[in-house]
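ok so i was messing around last nite and threw this chain in just to see what happens. nothing serious, just curious
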Amino acid sequence: MNFLIIEDDKNFSDFLSKALSKHGKTFIADNLINAQNLLSSYSFDCAIIDLKLGEEIVGPQIALMAKRKGVGHIIAVTNFENDSELIRLAYENGVDDFVKKSNLKTHFDFFIKKVITGKDLKKNVLRLTKTTYITKDKELINSLEAVCTSYAPMEPIFIGGESGVGKTQLGKCLKSLLGLDGELVELNCAGLNDEIIKSELFGHEKGAFTGADKQTIGKIELANNGILFLDEIGDMPLLTQEKLLKVIEEKEFNRVGGSKKIKSNFLLVTATLKNLEDLVKSGKLRPDFYNRIKGKTIHIKPLRERRDDLKLLIEYFLNIATRSIYLTPQAYEALLNYNWPGNIRELDKMISRLSDMKGGIVKMQDLDPVVRSGHTTLDVISPDGLLTKKQIEFIKETGSVNRLYDALEKEIILHAYKELNGKKIEIVKRYDISRKKLWSFLKENSMEGLQ
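result:
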């Protein structure tokens, strides 16, 4: 990597040159003319620019030139107290970071690591979204890049989205993206009471409670220098929220039944399909706990809003299936037109089921009825069900579930008649309709002259 240092304080430029030499080659300029010459002669990955050279504030001018020359990352440094106008001007001229010299010295490794890793960040995110978490969604990719370049790398991350969009999978991907040395440790909070979660998170000492016949290391301790991933955080009991809040802030805790303070520098990643704000309003989530876990937010859109991703995911699941299958154009089109209320999880199960079929060619009639009918997510009451809002309205209007059954049966027979060109034997076999019922329906509706 090539680093450009524009600094007229020799002691500070020597410090920077020595510190950067292990990462690449350094070039130093102590005035505007020399800076212009170097920028015209070489390409640079990073420029560290003192905003004031001599008695003149020329740093913003140099920053603008560096940006136009394609310098990857620009850090502006100064000894001044916060000057809002200067800060504004620097950022408008292309500066990426505005830092006091004393802060740059103190946090030098952090800033340089950010420059070095940032150079390959887009490649890493792109590689991830092509191989591990399949997506072309620009908003999601931008969120991942923002999380990875954050100035508070251990600030909690919240992943939101509907059931089945892949929140857990994305949470696991963050470890490699962030380059954390520790492990990713998971806990699903759904259905667990305070005592169980407390023991899982904090661990316990031998004899801490009945049945505690040995010391157990908790998940917080195991996640040191790694990620503590808490799924379904909206189901965490209020008592546990209070205890965990203190641990998030102080990064230390006691095992259950123990008095020794244990430190753990973990990154907290949480996820839920529930709306956090609604949970706060209903009293199921503490406001202070909400403010702490919200941190950096990644929202995953439902599959119905990611049509480009849907095509990629169909191909992905077809490729990893144990047995290869062929989708007819009509079947493939039906999969694209369906809105997948169960999202990626539902798609995965669907492709898996289709690959287990006796025949290797998937036709329209091999798809689930709900997929063939093209119900939208807005129609379906439950992601895993077939009941639609229109059906509920029909029941309310008629006051009878039986009338709905009759109407649906009629629709199914009419659909089968159209699909199979009136072939009665085929209708009976494919739709499992009794001969008596079918013949009776055809007679009532003057449709007897069929094959």
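not much to say yet. The mean pLDDT is 87.
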